[in-house]
Amino acid sequence: MVDLLSRAGLLEEALVLIGSMRMEPNSVIWGALLSGCKLHKKLEIAQVAVEKLMILEPNNSGYYMLIINMYAEANRWNEVARIRETMRECGVEKVLPGSSWIEVEKSMHHFAACDDHHQASHILNVLDSQLKLFGQDGVSHFD
Fold it and tell me: Predicted confidence band at 106 (pLDDT cuts at 50, 70, 90)?
Protein backbone atom coordinates (compact mmCIF):
# COMPACT_ATOMS: atom_id res chain seq x y z
CA MET A 1 0.00 0.00 0.00
CA VAL A 2 2.89 2.37 0.78
CA ASP A 3 4.33 1.69 -2.66
CA LEU A 4 1.00 2.42 -4.38
CA LEU A 5 0.45 5.64 -2.44
CA SER A 6 4.03 6.74 -3.09
CA ARG A 7 3.86 6.08 -6.82
CA ALA A 8 0.59 8.02 -6.98
CA GLY A 9 2.25 11.02 -5.35
CA LEU A 10 0.31 10.64 -2.11
CA LEU A 11 3.49 10.76 -0.05
CA GLU A 12 2.06 12.44 3.03
CA GLU A 13 -0.65 9.76 3.16
CA ALA A 14 2.00 7.05 2.76
CA LEU A 15 3.97 8.57 5.65
CA VAL A 16 0.85 8.62 7.83
CA LEU A 17 0.17 4.98 6.93
CA ILE A 18 3.72 4.04 7.90
CA GLY A 19 3.28 5.82 11.22
CA SER A 20 0.06 3.93 11.92
CA MET A 21 1.49 0.46 11.29
CA ARG A 22 1.37 -2.00 14.16
CA MET A 23 4.63 -3.55 12.99
CA GLU A 24 7.94 -1.75 12.74
CA PRO A 25 8.38 -0.55 9.13
CA ASN A 26 11.26 -2.31 7.39
CA SER A 27 13.63 -1.17 4.68
CA VAL A 28 11.28 -2.31 1.90
CA ILE A 29 8.58 0.04 3.18
CA TRP A 30 10.95 2.99 3.65
CA GLY A 31 12.55 2.25 0.28
CA ALA A 32 9.14 2.37 -1.43
CA LEU A 33 8.49 5.75 0.15
CA LEU A 34 11.93 6.97 -0.92
CA SER A 35 11.34 5.86 -4.50
CA GLY A 36 8.07 7.77 -4.58
CA CYS A 37 9.85 10.83 -3.22
CA LYS A 38 12.40 10.60 -6.03
CA LEU A 39 9.64 10.23 -8.60
CA HIS A 40 7.70 13.24 -7.28
CA LYS A 41 10.71 15.33 -6.15
CA LYS A 42 9.74 15.52 -2.47
CA LEU A 43 13.01 16.06 -0.62
CA GLU A 44 11.51 16.69 2.82
CA ILE A 45 9.85 13.29 3.04
CA ALA A 46 12.82 11.65 1.30
CA GLN A 47 15.03 12.90 4.14
CA VAL A 48 12.80 11.13 6.67
CA ALA A 49 12.93 7.88 4.69
CA VAL A 50 16.72 8.03 4.27
CA GLU A 51 17.25 8.66 7.98
CA LYS A 52 15.29 5.48 8.74
CA LEU A 53 17.08 3.53 6.00
CA MET A 54 20.49 4.61 7.31
CA ILE A 55 19.56 2.92 10.58
CA LEU A 56 18.01 -0.20 9.04
CA GLU A 57 20.62 -0.75 6.30
CA PRO A 58 23.60 1.46 7.13
CA ASN A 59 25.87 -0.11 4.49
CA ASN A 60 23.43 0.06 1.56
CA SER A 61 24.93 2.72 -0.69
CA GLY A 62 21.87 2.78 -2.96
CA TYR A 63 19.80 4.85 -0.55
CA TYR A 64 22.62 7.31 -0.01
CA MET A 65 23.12 7.67 -3.76
CA LEU A 66 19.42 8.24 -4.37
CA ILE A 67 19.24 11.12 -1.88
CA ILE A 68 22.54 12.52 -3.21
CA ASN A 69 21.06 12.58 -6.70
CA MET A 70 17.92 14.28 -5.41
CA TYR A 71 19.98 16.95 -3.65
CA ALA A 72 22.06 17.45 -6.80
CA GLU A 73 18.91 17.90 -8.92
CA ALA A 74 17.80 20.58 -6.45
CA ASN A 75 21.26 22.25 -6.58
CA ARG A 76 21.76 21.62 -2.86
CA TRP A 77 25.46 20.94 -3.12
CA ASN A 78 26.18 21.41 0.59
CA GLU A 79 23.81 18.53 1.30
CA VAL A 80 25.49 16.41 -1.39
CA ALA A 81 28.84 17.02 0.31
CA ARG A 82 27.37 16.30 3.76
CA ILE A 83 25.92 12.93 2.67
CA ARG A 84 29.14 11.96 0.89
CA GLU A 85 31.07 12.80 4.06
CA THR A 86 28.66 10.69 6.11
CA MET A 87 29.27 7.81 3.70
CA ARG A 88 33.03 8.20 4.09
CA GLU A 89 32.79 8.37 7.89
CA CYS A 90 30.62 5.24 8.01
CA GLY A 91 32.74 3.37 5.47
CA VAL A 92 29.86 3.08 2.99
CA GLU A 93 31.03 2.63 -0.59
CA LYS A 94 29.24 2.05 -3.85
CA VAL A 95 29.56 -1.58 -4.82
CA LEU A 96 31.17 -1.72 -8.25
CA PRO A 97 30.63 1.93 -9.23
CA GLY A 98 29.91 2.48 -12.90
CA SER A 99 28.82 -1.08 -13.47
CA SER A 100 25.80 -2.87 -14.86
CA TRP A 101 24.54 -6.39 -15.29
CA ILE A 102 22.58 -7.76 -18.21
CA GLU A 103 21.18 -11.20 -18.89
CA VAL A 104 21.62 -12.50 -22.43
CA GLU A 105 20.65 -16.01 -23.44
CA LYS A 106 20.31 -17.15 -19.80
CA SER A 107 23.78 -15.89 -18.89
CA MET A 108 24.58 -12.88 -16.68
CA HIS A 109 27.20 -10.43 -17.94
CA HIS A 110 28.83 -7.73 -15.86
CA PHE A 111 30.14 -4.50 -17.38
CA ALA A 112 32.31 -1.94 -15.63
CA ALA A 113 32.85 1.57 -16.92
CA CYS A 114 36.56 0.92 -17.32
CA ASP A 115 36.16 -2.54 -18.89
CA ASP A 116 36.93 -2.45 -22.61
CA HIS A 117 37.83 -6.13 -22.98
CA HIS A 118 34.38 -7.63 -22.48
CA GLN A 119 32.35 -9.08 -25.30
CA ALA A 120 30.23 -5.94 -25.06
CA SER A 121 29.75 -5.44 -28.78
CA HIS A 122 27.86 -8.73 -29.17
CA ILE A 123 25.66 -8.11 -26.14
CA LEU A 124 24.95 -4.51 -27.09
CA ASN A 125 24.04 -5.61 -30.60
CA VAL A 126 21.60 -8.18 -29.18
CA LEU A 127 20.12 -5.52 -26.93
CA ASP A 128 19.89 -3.13 -29.88
CA SER A 129 17.99 -5.68 -31.95
CA GLN A 130 15.62 -6.37 -29.04
CA LEU A 131 14.90 -2.66 -28.67
CA LYS A 132 14.12 -2.43 -32.38
CA LEU A 133 11.68 -5.33 -32.05
CA PHE A 134 9.75 -3.31 -29.49
CA GLY A 135 9.72 -0.21 -31.68
CA GLN A 136 12.40 1.69 -29.81
CA ASP A 137 15.24 3.47 -31.49
CA GLY A 138 18.33 1.33 -31.32
CA VAL A 139 21.59 2.33 -29.76
CA SER A 140 24.80 2.79 -31.68
CA HIS A 141 26.56 -0.42 -32.57
CA PHE A 142 29.92 -1.00 -30.92
CA ASP A 143 31.87 -3.00 -33.48
Answer: confident
pLDDT for residue 70 is more than 90: yes
Sign of the CA dihedral 96, 28, 59, 67? positive
Assess contact for 129 and 122: CB atoms under 8 A: no
Dihedral sign for Cα atoms in the order 94, 96, 98, 104: negative
Q: Which amino acid is at 26?
A: N
What share of the chain in percent tops pLDDT 90? 59
Distance CA(90)–CA(34), nearest Å, equals: 21
* pLDDT band at 9; cut points 50, 70, 90: very high
Residues whose CB is less than 8 angstroms from the CB of residue 66 and which lie 6 or more positions away in sequence, other chains included? 34, 35, 38, 46, 50
